[in-house]
Each structure stands twice: as structure tokens, then as C-alpha cells.
Amino acid sequence: MAPSCSRRVEIVGLGDKRQNTAVFRVSLSGDFLQPQVIYTGKTPACHPNGVTFLADWHITHTENHWANERTMKDYITKVIVPYIEKIRSQLPQSHVTSPQPALVIFDVFKGQMCQSTIDLLMENNIH
Fold it and tell me: From which domain of life does this come (predicted)?
């Protein structure tokens, strides 16, 4: 990653033609959540060499670089739930006995609509 306000950003891996998927999320309040980048491969060895991602980015891999049930559940656990818990901790708690409900809106993607993903969201009072 280039430092903020850099006038010039070197291109790393220009000859690298591997495909990947990047997933971006934003809250209704305008907060950008950490992205998820999915590379093609079976182990972390498929992640690019010479690239240093920010520590809170969710870097993962699948055999075909596509999002799936596992990558969605990982993203919920590692990014969405911590973000929602942070926001909940900032809310007044005077009369609240259970966590405030939260809402996520997804496009219609079967990895997001599977029952185990919905169960994970519901366990965290996310609808």
C-alpha cells in the first residue's frame, strides 16, 4: 500500500494475471467496512508476494476466487459482527437488556442466503 497522499504509486505485480474477488461494504451511516479480497488457491501461499495489506483487511482464498458460504461466514465473524458490536457499544444502554438489533442488506447471492449464514446473523441479533 502506498502512503496516504502519495503523488506516485508503484504498480506491484503488473505481470500477475491471477483473478480475484474484492467485496466492499458500507454502512448506512457512511462507514466503509474493511474489504474482503478472495484469491484463487487452496492455501495462503496463493496470496500475492510483495503486497502488504492493512492488518484489518480480510484476505482469504477459494479454489475459484469466488465468494461462498465459508467466505461469507468468515467475513460476518471477522468484520461485520465486530463493527456492529462497536456501534452497539456507543449507543445509550440505559433500558436495554439485550443487544440492539441490527440490519444487514445483501444482494441475492446464494452464499449469503444459506441457512447457516442466516443462523449466524440471527445469533448476533442481526436481521
Answer: Eukaryota
Partners of 126 in the β-ladder = 102
Are 66 and 21 a contacting pair, CB within 8 Å?
Answer: yes
Closest among 73, 116, 125 to 97, alpha carbons compared: 125
By C-alpha distance, which of 48, 105, 62 is closest to 80?
A: 105
- Residue 92 vs residue 16, higher pLDDT: 92
Give the amino acid at 120: L
CA pair distance 94, 33, nearest whole angstrom: 28
Question: Which residue from 125, 122, 117 is spatially nearest to 88, judged by alpha carbons?
Answer: 125
The answer to whether 58 and 79 are in contact (CB under 8 A) is yes
- Model confidence pTM above 0.70: yes
Alpha carbon 19 to its chain's center: 18
